[in-house]
Design brief:
By secondary structure, this protein is mainly alpha-helical. The chain folds into 2 domains: about 60 residues; about 35 residues, no CATH class. The protein is about 50% helix and about 5% strand. Strands 1-2 form a two-stranded antiparallel sheet. A hairpin with a 2-residue loop joins strand 1 and strand 2. The longest helix is centred in the first third of the chain and has 47 residues. It starts with 8 loop residues before the first helix and ends in a 19-residue tail after the last helix.
């Protein structure tokens, strides 16, 4: 039986933190570099949109591709209590997206030794490193 080499955890954690810091540095530099492209693309999108609005067109088609209008929507809750009253009042559940709250489900599982009905629960053991 071969002896296992001794692991120097101090060195390994130091290495891990240096790798994580370098990764963050590269991500920051990439984000700054990509911002230049995003800015140029946004300027072109504004030109396309201004042209389409001026001409009443919904799209501009060329041999290289097509620019077209698309409406994007976003919806956030400004007043949680008011929204919940609305949803519950008229059976308006179609206005809400439901999901299980993981910490609450975990607490329920620990207290009752079973999951709430209709819920899946997965727990993974991972390793994190901090300074």
């Amino acid at each position: 039986m071969t002896a296992q080499p001794e692991i120097n955890y101090d060195q390994l954690i130091d290495k891990y933190i240096k790798l994580r810091d370098k990764k963050a540095e590269i991500q920051k530099a990439q984000k700054a570099e990509l911002a230049k492209f995003d800015s140029a693309m946004l300027a072109l999108e504004r030109i396309f949109l201004a042209h389409m609005q001026a001409t009443g067109a919904k799209s501009v088609s060329t041999q290289h591709g097509t620019a077209y209008q698309k409406t994007q929507t976003s919806c956030t809750i400004a007043d949680r209590d008011a929204f919940l009253r609305f949803v519950k009042q008229g059976d308006n559940w179609a206005f809400a997206d439901l999901r299980a709250n993981a910490p609450a489900v975990k607490a329920y599982l620990e207290a009752n030794e079973e999951l709430p009905p209709g819920v899946n629960f997965v727990s993974r053991l991972t390793v994190n490193v901090q300074r």
